[in-house]
TrEMBL record:
Its membrane topology: Single-pass membrane protein
Cofactor(s) of this protein: heme
UniProt-recorded name of the protein: Cytochrome P450
InterPro entries xrefs: Cyt_P450, Cyt_P450_CS, Cyt_P450_E_grp-I, Cyt_P450_sf, Cytochrome_P450_fung
GO cellular component: membrane
Molecular-function GO term, any one: iron ion binding
Keywords: Glycoprotein, Heme, Iron, Membrane, Metal-binding, Monooxygenase, Oxidoreductase, Signal, Transmembrane, Transmembrane helix
Length: 486
């Protein structure tokens, strides 16, 4: 049969050891680089690794990801079971659920709330929060990183829970950050996904060597509960007290079609999927601009020419600000927040390009490899917004943002994320100048020196002088205090 004929033909990869397979080969920080190295070594953009009980497939090419995860979405829309994630109480997370009824129901809620035509309703909140950040950047520029961090959480907390964050050190923002960071740093590595097949590990006693993750699990479980419950209680309290403030959680509870558990889980999912990611993109944008004053100038010329100096950019300007759009695309290309996106799982045996992909295989789209593919992007490690412009200065049709993933699991928050990031880019460039980045000792820094070693991208802290572009720009920022959320 077909299956027998293909059975043994798997994509290339390092030779597996008995029992543990390739687990040791995968234990590395920044695995996306390793998989690009293997692509050259094994001369294949599809790689496979043996882990006990299943196989992991790495897709380094955009075309293969489209072919499998989109054209064959009927086969590739499941998620792996990752014990660490379940043990930490992350079963609430819509994005990590198997392809089942609950996932489909909750995903529909996301799509309804955040589809392209729906996100306009959040514009007042977006203006409000982005302008608040501009004022913070003006008044307290040295702490710039704290301000866009606040923005990333403030937006989701407002939309989901009707909760107003403190400009700094907000309790809920800190809980969310720690819950997400603890989990991401420990739980999304492909090598941890491989633990799948040793679920018994969780029953090992705490003194057993190599079970240090119990501590991680306990900490993570506590943080997760707080992340789910604290903002949710806020909604219940507001409702009890007759506060009329709207929020998605409130409308889900009032409509009473999805149940309290799902409402809570959906909101927690938005927090965990939509805060850290947006933060990562904003970090990359600020850093890219600090590194490239000439790109700031170019965007500022465009903004001044098209909008003038007497108002801030609004969403209506998006289509006419071509270079700003190119900066948006380039930021998500240059440093995609989840370089390995989120794994999909094959729900049936499949064959592709002569390779066998058995049911249960875990598929990692290597978004980093796709956005740093030399055949697609010249000099991919450099930040060059111009690559998205045609010779006559128009945007090219390469608008697909690979960082949002693929197929039926494609990020449903992409329109909200896109408009928030865009408004930040446009208003920051319209009003502020970012100086060159320097480290905490005062020395200038370059790109290579700034990576942290978590799976979601974050940049090490650095310094940067942020100043208003002109007295008029300062006035524009200060004026937002009175036009909040127009
Ligand atoms: C720039 C910011 C963001 C990036 C780069 C991003 C990226 C991603 C990626 C790569 C996935 C997995 C896609 C796949 O499996 O192929 C995903 C899933 C998801 N994202 Fe986002 N995301 C962002 C912002 C947001 C926001 C703001 C929200 C919510 C309001 C959100 C909600 C979700 C949800 C619910 C899923 C799970 C989808 C599912 O499994 O059905 N994301 N995102």
């Amino acid at each position: 049969t077909l299956r027998n004929r293909y059975r043994a033909v798997y994509p290339p990869g390092p030779k597996p050891y008995p029992v543990i397979g390739n687990i040791l080969d995968m234990v590395t920080s920044e695995p996306w680089y390793l998989y690009m190295k293997w692509e050259r070594l094994y001369k294949s953009k599809i790689l496979s690794l043996k882990v006990p009980g299943t196989r992991i497939y790495i897709l380094n090419s955009f075309e293969d990801a489209i072919e499998l995860l989109e054209k064959r979405a009927g086969v590739y829309s499941d998620r792996p079971r990752i014990p660490l994630i379940e043990m930490c109480g992350w079963t609430f997370n819509t994005g990590l659920m198997s392809n089942n009824d609950r996932w489909r129901k909750e995903r529909r809620v996301f799509q309804q709330a955040f589809k392209r035509e729906s996100v306009d309703r959040y514009q007042p909140t977006q203006y409000d929060k982005v302008h608040e950040m501009l004022r913070q950047l003006l008044n307290d520029p040295a702490d710039f990183a704290a301000h866009y961090k606040t923005l990333s959480a403030a937006l989701v907390l407002d939309i989901m829970y009707g909760y107003d964050v403190q400009p700094k050190h907000d309790r809920i923002v800190q809980v969310v950050e720690r819950a997400v960071q603890t989990l991401i740093e420990n739980g999304t590595d492909p090598s941890v996904a491989a633990l799948n097949v040793f679920p018994a590990i969780r029953y090992l006693p705490r003194w057993f060597p190599g079970t240090g993750f119990h501590k991680v699990v306990d900490e993570c479980t506590e943080l997760t509960k707080d992340m789910l419950n604290i903002p949710f209680e806020h909604v219940l309290k507001c409702m009890r007290e007759g506060d009329t403030r709207e929020s998605l959680v409130r409308s889900l509870l009032e409509a009473n079609v999805i149940g309290e558990d799902s409402a809570k889980g959906i909101a927690g999912t938005a927090l965990s999927a939509g805060t850290d990611t947006v933060l990562s993109v904003l970090e990359c944008f600020f850093f890219a601009m600090a590194l490239h004053p000439e790109k700031q100038r170019k965007a500022q010329e465009e903004i001044d020419r098209i909008i003038g100096l007497d108002r801030l950019p609004t969403f209506q300007d998006r289509e006419s600000l071509v270079y700003v759009e190119a900066i948006y695309r380039e930021t998500l290309r240059w440093l995609p927040p989840f370089p390995m996106t989120v794994p999909h799982v094959a729900e049936a045996d499949d064959f592709y390009k002569g390779f066998f992909i058995p049911k249960g295989s875990i598929i990692y789209p290597n978004a980093w490899a796709m956005t740093h593919d030399k055949e697609r992007y010249e000099d991919p490690d450099s930040f060059v917004p111009e690559r998205f412009l045609t010779a006559d200065g128009k945007l090219d049709d390469n608008s697909r943002i690979m960082a949002f993933g693929f197929g039926r699991r494609l990020c449903p928050g992409q329109h909200l994320a896109s408009s928030t990031v865009w408004l930040t880019i446009a208003t920051v460039l319209a009003t502020l100048d970012l100086g060159l980045p320097y480290n905490l000792d005062g020395d200038p820094i370059k790109f290579q020196q700034i990576y942290t070693k978590a799976d979601s991208l974050h940049l090490r802290p650095y310094n940067c002088c942020i100043t208003p572009r002109s007295p008029a720009a300062r006035k524009l920022i200060e004026g937002t205090e009175y036009t909040a959320g127009y």
